[in-house]
Amino acid sequence: MKLKQAIIFSVAILAGGACLAQSDVKEDFKPSTLNQPGQLYPQVNSQGYARFRIVAPYADSVKVSLGLGGRGGTKLTKTGDSVWTGTTEGPMDEGFHYYHLTVDGGTFNDPGTLNFYGSTRWESGIEIPAHDQDFYALKDVPHGNVQQILFPSKSTSTSRRAFVYTPPGYEKDKSKKYPVLYLQHGWGEDETAWSNQGHANLIMDNLIAEGKIKPFIIVMTYGMTNELKWGHLKEFKVDSFQTVLVDELIPYVDANFRTISDRAHRAMAGLSMGGFETHSITLNKPDVFSYYGLLSGGIYTPEELGGKTKPKLIFISCGSRENPDRVNDAAAKLKDAGFNVVSFVSQNTAHEFQTWRRSLHELAPLLFKD
Amino acid sequence: MKLKQAIIFSVAILAGGACLAQSDVKEDFKPSTLNQPGQLYPQVNSQGYARFRIVAPYADSVKVSLGLGGRGGTKLTKTGDSVWTGTTEGPMDEGFHYYHLTVDGGTFNDPGTLNFYGSTRWESGIEIPAHDQDFYALKDVPHGNVQQILFPSKSTSTSRRAFVYTPPGYEKDKSKKYPVLYLQHGWGEDETAWSNQGHANLIMDNLIAEGKIKPFIIVMTYGMTNELKWGHLKEFKVDSFQTVLVDELIPYVDANFRTISDRAHRAMAGLSMGGFETHSITLNKPDVFSYYGLLSGGIYTPEELGGKTKPKLIFISCGSRENPDRVNDAAAKLKDAGFNVVSFVSQNTAHEFQTWRRSLHELAPLLFKD
Fold first, then answer.
1. Low-confidence ranges of chain A (pLDDT < 50)
2. What is the phi/psi pair of residue B321, to 5°?
3. Across the strands, what pairs with B87?
4. Average pLDDT of the segment spanning B62-81
5. What residue range is the signal peptide (chains A, B) (predicted)?
6. In A40-88, at which residue ranges do the beta strands (DSSP E only) sit?
7. Which residues pair with B122 in a beta bridge?
8. DSSP alpha helices (H): ranges in chain B?
9. Domains contained in chain A, CATH given
């Protein structure tokens, strides 16, 4: 039991320190919008602090992976017979964050919140209200639909899943055809990420309602990330996914949805590893897509684009807490080389979904302009 | 620490007893089909035993709610420095089961499996392979789509979510119109249940591929179950849900999908509490639906149906471990009174999803026959 006592002791010390530092924390905490129905915790205050409450009567240690600086997380303290509570040492960045619990050394999700697929597992999620959250809010506007399709994939000998966003009115005007954006998730995520974490459908619904974009379809499928371990992104071979996307999914979508099935009306974008995929596939297949988007997912150079069919637009973005200079420098070089390029830096966000929500919001109005 | 030591002690005693009883357990365990990608546990053997493996190095007690007899669950024993393992004392019923862990007194999900919304929370799920699992298997046949819609609801001042199954070919033949089944989940579940746990879409795809049914649309929405505590079903008032369903959802579906929008081509069915809702709403609105299905969700009597527009079909079902006599007796009385009634009893299943998958498989070919 010595180890357990040592853990309890260190928790008490750290929590005491944290309490002192938190004297300015505003006590206006409200349940996170991602909580399961009826669950009061986790909570978030107006400054962006997150507070957790976990019931584990006989546990010796409960830790939350979310916290300032990333690695340390937030250690909870036992504040009653059965309850562990704790508050982050400082405000978290705006937007969505994945997290999990460590209960007596085991990894579990917070039973208070919904789960989101990230890090190759369903993780807990929390939402820190953002000053610009209106652009992805659920509003009283016409809504598009998100539908699950199962498309045949000979190359992988199975039916594969994708989600297809069709804009409001798609079912009504049966003669209208639409351009298509193929939009990829990041490492460890799957085809649910852009709808669940990213609110891609609500971003589109709102932009369409405001008249800021022409409606288009978004297709989101699985980028086969699980074959790859984190830290080995350079070993990623895009071939098998390229076959699924270009030879199987695109023909299926063009056959089963009212698409404008030419290069001029087809875009590809992706976040993080999905950006790497977009980079490789657009360079390999320049006659398939004409709009390219890398969201925290690398850059293009004029050299690698040289001699190929020119894209109509290149969009490169990242969070200000990533490497914005690299993005801006790459954009400047592409511009000098005569490419139509737009770069975007999301302020005060890192390699997280708020960066990508904002990136989609910036990218969408630039697509399919002609 | 006395309580904790007592718990460890009792776990050891019980596990010892279980080990003796499990001498005939076949060691052909395989990962459950509902595991998260790459996860090896939980596992299931060919006899239907379930085996669990949880990492929790410093925990004093880990229990799984799933087990013989329901209440007791399965207590795990520490079999290494960090690992807790255990096997159910006997084979579980075929099909899907919800469960959760109790780790040092706290309720958590098994990090190895996918989560399913039941008991008003996202719970862990495990699948015991069934002898008849072929009818809901993912096969190389044309697949329909399941789409999320957000429909405006004035009565609840929000946009509400529903899932709509459209059969294969829906997008291709743009003149064809379809009948609609409104299909409700049970208490503590939500509009995701029939697709995720029930595989309603795959059941339909397979029946259509075999030519056993005429294609129809299925609409699944939230029955507002959270207002209600378990054990208080009799206090349930259907009015607010009836307004959402009949006055808001049905007109929205008829306006946005290619439906045959008359009574003769509209069915309602539900499982458990969804059956109670079906019972009430079909009796209140006999001119809206012409096919009624109660799946482990009560019965109709000739008296309550008397004097109303007659349904084309009444379908009543339950598992053999529920109260099949009540279902069969009710069907006999309805038949005597001149109603077209079909009853179905799912063999060797209880108040669980295998009963309802089989019920949908029996019900679907009976719908919209003319």
1. 1-20
2. -90, 5
3. B51
4. 87
5. 1-21
6. 43-44, 50-55, 62-64, 74-75, 77-78, 83-87
7. B117
8. 2-21, 193-196, 200-209, 239-242, 250-256, 273-284, 302-305, 324-336, 353-363
9. 2-129 (2.60.40.10), 135-366 (3.40.50.1820)
Q: For residue A61, what are the contacts with CB-CB under 8 A and spacing of at least 6?
A: A4, A7, A8, A11, A75, A102, A103, A104, A105, B58
Out of A4, A145, A158, name the one closest to residue B149 (CB). A145
Interface check B33 vs A, CB under 8 A: no
CA dihedral A350→A353→A358→A360, nearest 10 degrees, is 130
What DSSP line would sit under A163-187, residue for residue? EEEE-TTTTT-TT--B-EEEEE--T
The one-letter code for the residue type at B232 is H
CA–CA min distance B15, chain A (Å): 20
The pLDDT of residue B10 is 33
The Cα–Cα gap between B299 and B316 comes to 7
Q: Is residue B2 scored above 70 in pLDDT?
A: no
| Contact residues, chain A, for B255 at CB < 8 Å | 172
Interface touch A58/B146, C-beta < 8 Å: no
The strand pairing partners of A54, in sequence order, are: A84
Structure tokens at A204: 């589109």
Residue A338 CB neighbours (<10 A): 9
The alpha-carbon gap from A180 to the nearest alpha carbon of chain B, in Å, equals 16
Q: Does B224 touch chain A (CB under 8 A)?
A: no
Which one-letter DSSP state was computed for residue A244?
I
How far apart (Å, rounded) are the C-alpha atoms in residues A77 and A58?
Answer: 13
Q: What is the Cα–Cα distance from B203 to B31, expressed in whole angstroms?
A: 23
B145: nearest CB among A149, A158, A255: A149
Over the stretch B318-330, which tens digit does the pLDDT of each residue have? 999 999 999 999 9
CB A296, CB A275: distance < 8 Å: yes
Chain B residues whose beta carbon lies within 8 Å of the beta carbon of residue A255:
172
Cis peptide before A42 (omega within 30 of 0): yes
- Chain A residues lying within 8 Å of B54, measured CB to CB: 106
Q: Across the interface, do B38 and A82 touch by the CB < 8 Å criterion? A: no
Q: Do A107 and B109 count as a contact with CB atoms less than 8 A apart?
A: no
Q: Is-contact B48 B93, C-beta < 8 A?
A: yes
The verdict on ipTM greater than 0.90 is no
Contact A152, A188 (CB under 8 A): no
Residue of B nearest to A171 (CA): B256
- B61 contact residues in A (CB cutoff 8 A): 58
Q: Which two tokens stand for residue B162?
A: 């529903």
Of A190, A178, A270, A271, the closest CA to residue A217 belongs to A178
Q: Which residue of A has its CA nearest to B196?
A: A148
Looking at residue B269, what DSSP letter applies? E
